[in-house]
């Protein structure tokens, strides 16, 4: 009514009767002819109804106040002193920002099996997990970067995962950034160049490595641990990595 320009008023001398279904018109007449008695509502505003409403309000408040929980997955075995320092700072960054920090670590000579094992543990966790963060054992990640990925996912609810590949720096080597994100065209990986991306911008991609990727738990649950195994159709020219396989399987599932 207000959208059409009508001014709304209510006479609260009597309790307003909200008619929102046609079948309520007869009820409204009975109530009006009975003198607009409040006792009319006592037939359904009982203790059980009140308990349900209070429980719903409490649940909504708890969900609002519950810290977001991040499952931090680190496959690998080459954890250096510098890397551990960054990892500890990740933990304290999560605490300072009222985020739950749930660590998962595993190593296997077969990277496909390693990812599957960690994913299985994450999905079996009794703790309510909101995000799953994958970081490699040779990448240095700061908590403010993780917070930026959270903000990106909050801004774009239709996006299931965000990768911070433009600002990730490897711990080893010459320290230069390398591109691990791009498009998958005719079974071939076509990389994007970080230097060509304006700062603070987002780009839709087909595949990415997992040096630092934040995904919603729902994505991991829907694709499943088997998502790290490549499809036969993706192995025409070469055998994709487990992270590439997961991205392709996720896109295949929509």
What this model shows, in words?
The protein is an alpha+beta fold and 254 residues long. It is built from seven helices and ten strands. The protein has a five-stranded mixed β-sheet, with helices on both faces. It has a three-stranded antiparallel β-sheet with strand order 8-7-9. A two-stranded antiparallel ribbon has the order 4-6. It is elongated. The model has no long low-confidence stretch (mean pLDDT 85).
Radius of gyration of CA atoms, rounded to a whole number: 26 Å
Main sheet?
Answer: 5 strands, mixed
- Strand order, sheet with most strands: 2-1-3-10-5
The rough form would be described as: elongated
Tell me the total number of β-strands: 10
Separation of the first and last Cα atoms: 39 Å
What is the helix tally?
7
The average pLDDT is 85
Seen as an oligomer or otherwise, the chain set is single chain
- Could you list the spans in which at least 5 consecutive residues all have pLDDT below 50? none
Q: Helix/strand/pairing class, anyone? A: alpha+beta
- Percent helix: 25-40%
Strand content: 15-25%
Helices and strands, in order, run as: HHEHEHEEHEEEEEEHH
List keywords for this structure.
3-stranded antiparallel beta sheet, elongated, alpha+beta, 5-stranded mixed beta sheet
């Amino acid at each position: 009514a207000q959208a059409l320009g009508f001014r709304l008023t209510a006479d609260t001398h009597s309790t307003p009767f909200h008619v929102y279904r046609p079948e309520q018109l007869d009820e409204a007449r009975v109530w009006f002819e009975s003198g607009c008695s409040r006792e009319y509502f006592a037939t359904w505003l009982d203790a059980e109804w009140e308990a349900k409403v209070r429980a719903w309000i409490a649940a909504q408040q708890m969900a609002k106040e519950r810290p977001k929980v991040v499952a931090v997955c680190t496959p690998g075995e080459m954890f250096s002193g510098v890397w551990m320092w960054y990892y500890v700072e990740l933990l304290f960054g999560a605490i300072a920002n009222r985020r739950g920090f749930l660590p998962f670590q595993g190593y296997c000579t077969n990277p496909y099996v390693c990812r599957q094992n960690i994913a299985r543990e994450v999905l079996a966790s009794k703790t309510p997990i909101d995000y799953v963060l994958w970081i490699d054992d040779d990448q240095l990640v700061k908590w403010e970067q993780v917070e930026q990925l959270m903000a990106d996912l909050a801004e774009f609810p239709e996006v299931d995962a965000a990768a911070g590949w433009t600002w990730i720096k490897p711990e080893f080597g010459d320290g230069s950034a390398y591109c691990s994100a791009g498009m998958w065209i005719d079974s071939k990986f076509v990389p994007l160049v970080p230097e060509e991306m304006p700062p603070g911008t987002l780009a839709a991609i087909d595949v990415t490595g997992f040096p630092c990727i934040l995904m919603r738990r729902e994505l991991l649950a829907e694709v499943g641990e088997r998502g790290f195994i490549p499809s036969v159709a993706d192995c025409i020219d070469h055998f994709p990595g487990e992270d590439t396989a997961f991205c392709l399987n996720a896109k295949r599932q929509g």
